[in-house]
Amino acid sequence: VQLVESGGGLVQPGGSLRLSCVASGFTFSRLDMSWYRQAPGKNRELVARISSAGLGTIFADTMKGRFTISRDNAKNTVYLQMKSLKPEDTAVYFCYTTWFRDYWGQGTQVTVSS
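^ thats the sequence. predicted structure below, dont judge the formating
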């Protein structure tokens, strides 16, 4: 199983980014997928989860209305669309799934700064 994130970078406050996570090594369409993030000095936190059926949930109130999770099973890819980004969204964003054990991507850095 391999999860490879991309799409991070430096963006100004108020800007947008779309993160991608390409999965391989398992039947992608059968598994729930999640995005987590970890800011410097803080614990890793759950950002969003999408079920195998495509039902997405954003977990933190501070992200609702700004973040959207989606998936494309034909491309084995899960996305995190982020808009109206704030400096406090600065973190490393990780893709995650579980199938007999936990699997994490290497992470992609998102920096929101002017």
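The two ends are 37 Å apart (CA to CA).
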